[in-house]
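Chain A, query sequence.
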Amino acid sequence: MSANQPRLTRQQANLLLADGVQADVRDSAEVLALLERQFDAALRHRSSELTGLAERLTPLLDAMEARRQQRVSLVRALLGERGSMDDYIAGLAEPARGALAAAWSDLESTVQACKAATTRNGSLLAEQYTVMQRVLHGEDDTYAPR
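Chain A, predicted structure.
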């Protein structure tokens, strides 16, 4: 927590952490759905749809990054510089521990699925770009002696 930010109580920090994880669970599911639509649009060469999807993805990803930074800051404020979400969750009493552990696990698996979809989409777009370069400019070795 920065010097110009008001001090939070432990209860307020706990609430911010839980709410942030829930917001990330919701937003990561939306990101995954948008990435699936992005793949479909890329397969079908619908560039205007790709642009629209990028415009929808950007604010979601920005919000998730801001919440991640806040989460790191809050956990470190509560547990010290080496504190992690796993340490934080382990220190909670039930039923809060179980609820947050389930949400955190859901978030982790959805983020992994998003990473895989992003890699897949990027590979497809790069492959399409390479094909278009070949169409426009030919193969590098088209006129090379054999």
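The mean pLDDT is 91. The CA atoms of residues 70 and 119 lie 26 Å apart.
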